[in-house]
Specification:
The structure is a homodimer. Chain A is an all-alpha fold. Chain A folds into 2 domains: 54 residues, Arc Repressor Mutant, subunit A (Orthogonal Bundle), CATH 1.10.10; 119 residues. In chain A, helix 1 runs antiparallel to helix 2, helix 6 crosses helix 8 and helix 8 runs antiparallel to helix 10. The longest helix of chain A is centred in the first third of the chain and has 23 residues. Chain A starts with a helix and ends in a 6-residue tail after the last helix. The interface between A and B is large, with 59 and 59 residues. The structure holds a DNA duplex.
Chain lengths: 196, 196
Amino acid sequence: MAWDVEGTKRALLTAAVAEFSEKGFGGARIDRISERAGVNRERLYSYFGNKRQLFEAVLADQLGTILDGVPVTETGPAAAAGFAGRYFDACRSHPELPRLVFWEGLELTYPIDTDTRTARAALKSAELGAAVGELSGRDAASLLLTIVSLCHSWFASPNLGLIITGDDGDHEGRRRIVTATTEALTRGLLEGPAGG
Amino acid sequence: MAWDVEGTKRALLTAAVAEFSEKGFGGARIDRISERAGVNRERLYSYFGNKRQLFEAVLADQLGTILDGVPVTETGPAAAAGFAGRYFDACRSHPELPRLVFWEGLELTYPIDTDTRTARAALKSAELGAAVGELSGRDAASLLLTIVSLCHSWFASPNLGLIITGDDGDHEGRRRIVTATTEALTRGLLEGPAGG
DNA sequence: TCAATTTCCAACTAAACGTTTGGAGATTCG
DNA sequence: CGAATCTCCAAACGTTTAGTTGGAAATTGA
């Protein structure tokens, strides 16, 4: 049987995504990652270097294109609301992504792969701003940050939902609030500085 | 010199707040906590039991009254915006609090001290809903959750701010967006289901 | 076919880590 | 004043953990 270096790497990375998103850097264990991957731990060191480098590889692999897969399709304030709803759905389908972003923010002093991610975020901000109407770059970026923050915190901090609304499982209800918030903020931004 | 059991406990708890808010449960170290406190590690086990119980004591001590210190003073949508701004300021003054909430959400399967915290959140929701005008309990809770989520994620996930807006240090700018978002959402909720 | 190279593995290592132990010193009360 | 009790400490313990080593097995190319 042929060697499968790429397959082994991919298996390790997939296992590492699961382990780091669940436990963070400090709580993740090399043993568990190699067990989940069905690969010897020494292979992990050979391919990725050390635990910290593996974590950074996971963040780069998973977070680089986190915004790309969610399109902006409507126009006007509905564009922002629609995008927010789809981003919420994306987070619901892949809750490991918001979790990884929060682990990154809590455990690293500086984000990974900032050039790539900053560039992609700027593209999405511009796309959103154009679809909405006339938003400044700054306002569009703030709007995007608000959308992403609301979506991420619902999935990464379900304790808050449970304590404040008594329910961390009402995804539909929360989705409606997130889209309503987004549309309301967008209208406010379009009305100009008086609104902000 | 008299024994100071309460002082020793308080020193350990204070050191533990700092350590757990910075590193989370998985990354925190008992050695560092006892060093910061200037207290022998054995005292920690004697007073708190084990590392996990100390973490839970920290969460109960710090998060139980997190909303209480921020008043609702205006009326109408400005009440929500004003509260949001003050809550943002509280988070800025005590960034360990949003961080601890996120560590709790990521590292525990169920929040600590939920009865106390749920009761206090319900009081604050009711206070906010009444000040704003006529908001249902459910809407008021959703509004409160939105405010808290926006404030917490700015401080616990500064990586996002850096990547999306290019600046994780513009607290004033972000504060304006949070208050504007809050006011816009509040107006939308007051207008009824068409808004949500 | 065989030597060289590469991928992969089991076992090992040293340090880190949470927790416990034996006892010193301080306090309290009879 | 002295015994009992309590608070506190330094050192030790057993386990966990990240990372490394020596070598087996598979692959490749001459």
